[in-house]
Amino acid sequence: MSDKVAVLVAGSWGTALASVLASNHSEVRIWTRSADQAEEINRRHSNEHYLPGILLPDNLIATTDMGAAVSGVEAVVIVAPSSAMRQVSRDLKAFWKPDMLCVHATKGFETESMKRMSTVISEELGCPEGQIVVLSGPSHAEEVVRHCPTTVVVASQDETAAFRAQSLFNNNDFRVYTNRDLVGVELAGALKNIIALGAGLSDGLGFGDNAKAALLTRGLAEISRVGVGLGANPLTFAGLAGIGDLVVTATSRHSRNWRAGSLLGQGKPLDEVLESMGMVVEGIRTTQAAYALSQQMNVQMPITVQIYQVLFQNKSPRSAVEALMGRDPKAEMETMSQETWEQWYT
User: Fold this and answer.
1) What positions does the domain Glycerol-3-phosphate dehydrogenase NAD-dependent C-terminal occupy (predicted)?
2) 183-345 CATH fold
3) How far apart are CA 82 and CA 285, in angstroms?
4) Is 50 among the annotated ligand-binding positions?
């Protein structure tokens, strides 16, 4: 088996995962469309725009030639933004081999179709969705690339593929668990970005820890409600991909979604916020997709609805919080069906 791995593309998370892989494998190739970025990675072993101040491993090689990047590799790890996933997967098709392991680490939906990333990849590569592996969990690129202890989960309906991905990434700094719930892990990773935007909004408004704790708790209930409705295992949302990723994304200065929400809460317009970020904020597109999904499924997602109205209907963040606090009183646990309770406790 080859000891070479390819990563597509060279953003912050792609570069961080490539760095992890470079600790475990003889050669890691990272693909980028930017010739300047490729030259910087190869000559200076840095990617300053995305990960300033970080020295990258010598065995991490960048190229703008996708065919060269994936030639003879054991696995391809796709870390494209959700908006680019279909095109990147389509470009990969010409070089794809059926024995390659396909892992993706993108947390979002295709906005137009509301499809999960594994579905998009499967459609473009022509491989079964059940063989694709998703990597998710509480993991900021800025900490992973500095070898801070990190724990994630890899999920696939194909147990062998999940074990291969676990072996691919696992080391003393980067601990990897497996999970069979591909749908739940993907949904948790995508939907938590909406709640992280909301947490940032709350902090930007100066509402304090009580408000944020409530938002995270009710946000997890909202994520679980949608996930179970789409066939996910409810226990997934109590694990690394669920509460773990939600906490780190909604509370950390490294989180783009939290930072964007905080700026919005301080009264900055959305266009100005996105310009100042300089990187993709997946929660924006995910909010659009999840709002449409909630309407399609007829599932209550009150936090998502309010954040959607802030982002796309010019509702003030303060009015959104007031709308959430002013909802009719409810029993906390009535959001779970009897069937879900039985899944949790039997």
Assistant:
1) 181-322
2) N-(1-d-carboxylethyl)-l-norvaline Dehydrogenase; domain 2 (1.10.1040)
3) 8
4) yes
Whether residue 291 is annotated as binding a ligand: the answer is no
Q: Using an 8 Å Cβ cutoff, are 38 and 64 in contact?
A: yes
Residue 341, pLDDT score: 46
- What is the chain's alpha carbon radius of gyration, rounded to the nearest angstrom? 20
* Active-site residue, from 93, 192, 212, 315: 192
330 is in an annotated binding site: no
Q: Which two tokens stand for residue 114?
A: 């509301």
pTM: predicted TM-score of the whole model, two decimal places: 0.93
Mean of per-residue pLDDT scores for the chain? 93
Separation of first and last alpha carbons in the chain:
42
Per-residue confidence (pLDDT) for residue 2, from 0 to 100 = 67
Instruction: Determine if residue 46 is labeled as part of a ligand binding site.
Output: no
What pLDDT shows up at residue 339?
A: 56
pLDDT by residue (tens digit) across 174-187? 999 999 999 999 99
9: preceding bond cis by omega (within 30 degrees): yes
User: b vs e for 71-88, b when ≥16 Cβ sit within 10 Å of the residue's Cβ?
Assistant: eebbbbbbbbbbebbbeb
212 is in an annotated binding site: no
Please tell me whether residue 103 adopts helix, strand or coil conformation: strand
* Alpha-carbon span 151 to 139, nearest angstrom: 7
Show me where the domains of the chain are located.
4-180, 183-345
Residue corresponding to tokens 């003879």: 72
Helix axes 208-229, 302-312, angle to 10 degrees: 110
CATH of domain 4-180: 3.40.50.720
In this prediction, residue 224 carries a pLDDT of 95
Active site residue 97: no
